[in-house]
């Protein structure tokens, strides 16, 4: 009797598998292999083709005027984005406010600057001098304080920054509004019941939670701004693209220079993507949950440590 | 009891006179009259949609009223008196006036991006401008009192429903309220977690906190409430000592409601 039951338990023990292995993901392997093959073929054709002129690419990649253009692009994108975020946040709050005038003003602004194509807006700003040759600051119906020629205020860079900021802030406003709306109404109610003023509530409770929904589309917007700066080349602002255009207009090395430009836009976007990861992590505090991979690994280590 | 309290302190904790509340054309509260004495525990019962939440929310001015007057310890919240009229005060003044009325919600509404401790000290440090160390000290004491001393660094998502609601109660208490409003504090909880929250409420009642509790826990009301108010369709149908209203209700509607819930 006992012999049999002992034998049983021994066999039962052998029946317990030693490890549980996640399902093999063949699809991932097949897709991976295909991608590697295509990339290899594309690279081989690019390097075999002399028209790409890779030596020229290498020569211009770090050339002074290209790097200068790159810096201007970065400056332009940063300033335009900073202004857009500030204006966008203000517009989103105006849109939510119970003050109907503020609400209508914000609504009209967003409608207007989303409707006008950026290219058209830039050309209009650039030619503002034709409309208002002079800009002056004065007391309404009173004396004029000072006057300047429009062209000294709206320089090429000024027009570029103002144009980008006007255009992008309208989009940022919608991103922020969506974020504010995404925060559970109970959070505002609790803050209000604790005696927090609207400003305190927005700053300390609503915005930090809204950021979870805001950061991904906002980064997307930032990436788009970085690339959109290339449009200001039409008003001869020597940013990255225009700097390259100046060179290839002279040397006819069009393809390698456009590849240099492409390369730098890729780098900028990569940097932003990495930054996005860290910003998202910061605003996801309080959210339970690990990635599937981390969770699996942790569980296995914990089990093994227990053995 | 009301008379007693008014005699002893001279002022009621809550005084509701002739209050009407409408949402557009929907008349939610009719001619409300209710007086709560300091230290009294009032349980509000009644069918869903009868206006219990609305009444609580009118008391701390989360909702505006359309007629009548509500005073908390003799003071108006959200209005000031000018002769025959009540005039809405600015948001800032309303916020200041409602600081001393704590509110606990059915859905807890803890700030999800802050830890339990941060949830507690947020308003005392920012609204009442208490020094951080002082607020933290009191917050830790309160977390200990609701049995969550070891959870001060946890985020709401890492706590059970019962624990979240106890943090929410501690958060309201951290403002040193003179009046606590509870809107169905246990209705979102699994049955086995209801007890731990009701224990905290019982504790508060024993410590002379003035409380108004909307609840469906008739057993709790019978045990803890001084006064039970039965509401239906935006009217107070019946109010009186807990034992009387719950065990020998005068009105047919109260009887039918109590039969249904117990
Ligand atoms: N914000 C609101 N807007 C319009 N109607 C509302 C609003 N809040 C509550 N009501 C209505 O008021 C009535 C009373 O609601 P409520 O006070 O929540 O009842 P209870 O808490 O007793 O269940 C219900 O008919 C409800 O539909
Ligand atoms: Mg309710």
TrEMBL record, chain A:
Transmembrane helix as UniProt keyword: yes
Cross-referenced SUPFAM superfamilies: MetI-like
Main location: membrane
Keywords associated with the record: Amino-acid transport, Cell membrane, Membrane, Transmembrane, Transmembrane helix, Transport
ABC transmembrane type-1 domain boundaries: 70-276
Any one GO BP annotation for this protein: amino acid transport
Membrane-spanning intervals of the chain: 26-47, 67-91, 111-132, 144-166, 255-275
Bilayer topology: Multi-pass membrane protein
Domain of life of the native organism: Bacteria
InterPro entries, sorted: AA_ABC_transptr_permease_3TM, ArtM/GltK/GlnP/TcyL/YhdX-like, MetI-like, MetI-like_sf
GO MF annotation terms: transmembrane transporter activity
Keyword hit for Cell membrane: yes
Pfam family name, one: BPD_transp_1
UniProt-annotated location(s): Cell membrane
GO-annotated cellular components: ATP-binding cassette (ABC) transporter complex
Protein family according to the UniProt entry: Belongs to the binding-protein-dependent transport system permease family.
Protein name, as recorded: Amino acid ABC transporter membrane protein (PAAT family)
Native species: Herbihabitans rhizosphaerae
UniProtKB/TrEMBL annotation, chain B:
Molecular function as annotated in GO: ATP binding; ATP hydrolysis activity; ATPase-coupled polar amino acid-transporter activity
Record has Repressor as a keyword: no
SUPFAM superfamilies in the cross-refs: P-loop containing nucleoside triphosphate hydrolases
One Pfam short name: ABC_tran
Residue stretches spanning the membrane: none
Family note: Belongs to the ABC transporter superfamily.
Descriptive protein name: ABC-type polar-amino-acid transporter
């Amino acid at each position: 009797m006992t012999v049999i039951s002992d034998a049983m338990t021994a066999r039962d023990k052998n029946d317990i598998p030693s490890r549980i292995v996640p399902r093999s993901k063949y699809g991932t392997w097949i897709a991976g292999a295909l991608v590697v093959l295509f990339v290899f073929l594309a690279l081989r054709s690019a390097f075999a083709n002399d028209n790409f002129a890779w030596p020229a690419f290498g020569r211009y990649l770090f050339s002074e005027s290209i790097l200068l253009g790159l810096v201007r692009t970065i400056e332009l994108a940063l300033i335009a984005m900073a202004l857009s975020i500030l204006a966008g946040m203000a517009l989103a709050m105006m849109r939510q406010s119970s003050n109907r005038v503020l609400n209508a003003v914000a609504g009209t602004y967003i409608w207007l600057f989303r409707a006008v194509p950026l290219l058209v807006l830039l050309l209009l700003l650039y030619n503002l001098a034709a409309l208002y040759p002079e800009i002056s600051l004065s007391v309404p119906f009173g004396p004029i304080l000072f006057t300047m020629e429009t062209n000294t205020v709206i320089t090429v860079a000024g027009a570029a920054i103002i144009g980008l900021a006007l255009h992008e802030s309208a989009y940022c406003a919608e991103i922020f509004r969506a974020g504010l709306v995404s925060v559970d109404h109970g959070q505002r109610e609790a803050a209000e019941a604790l005696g927090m003023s609207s400003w305190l509530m927005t700053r300390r409770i609503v915005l930090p939670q809204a950021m979870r929904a805001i950061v991904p589309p906002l980064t997307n917007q930032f990436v788009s701004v970085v690339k959109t700066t290339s449009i200001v080349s039409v008003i001869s602002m020597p940013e990255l693209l225009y700097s390259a255009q100046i060179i290839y207009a002279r040397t006819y090395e069009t393809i390698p220079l456009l590849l240099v430009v492409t390369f730098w836009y890729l780098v900028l976007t990569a940097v932003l993507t990495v930054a996005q990861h860290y910003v998202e992590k910061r605003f996801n505090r309080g959210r339970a949950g690990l990635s599937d991979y981390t969770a699996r690994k942790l569980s296995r280590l914990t089990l093994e440590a227990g053995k | 009891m009301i008379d007693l309290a008014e005699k002893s302190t001279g002022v009621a904790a809550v005084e509701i006179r002739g209050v009407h509340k409408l949402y557009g054309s929907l008349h939610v509260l009719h001619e409300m009259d209710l007086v709560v004495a300091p230290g009294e525990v009032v349980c509000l019962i009644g069918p869903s949609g009868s206006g219990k939440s609305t009444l609580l929310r009118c008391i701390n001015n989360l909702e505006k009223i359309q007629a009548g007057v509500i005073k908390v310890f003799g003071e108006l919240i959200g209005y000031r008196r000018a002769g025959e009229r009540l005039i809405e005060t600015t948001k800032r003044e309303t916020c200041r006036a409602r600081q001393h009325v704590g509110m606990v919600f059915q859905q807890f509404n803890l700030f999800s991006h802050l830890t339990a401790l941060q949830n507690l000290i947020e308003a005392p440090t920012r609204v009442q401008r208490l020094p951080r160390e002082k607020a933290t000290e009191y917050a830790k004491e309160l977390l200990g009192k609701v049995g969550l001393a070891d959870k001060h660094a946890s985020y709401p998502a890492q706590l059970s429903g019962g624990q979240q609601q106890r943090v929410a109660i501690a958060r309201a208490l951290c403002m040193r309220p003179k009046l606590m409003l509870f809107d169905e504090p246990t209705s979102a909880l699994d049955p086995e977690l209801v007890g731990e929250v009701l224990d905290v409420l019982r504790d508060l009642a024993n410590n002379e906190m003035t409380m108004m509790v909307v609840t469906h826990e008739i057993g709790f009301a019978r045990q803890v409430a001084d006064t039970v108010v039965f509401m239906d369709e935006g009217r107070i149908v019946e109010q009186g000592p807990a034992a009387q209203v719950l065990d020998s209700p005068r009105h047919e509607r109260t009887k039918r409601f109590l039969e249904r819930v117990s």
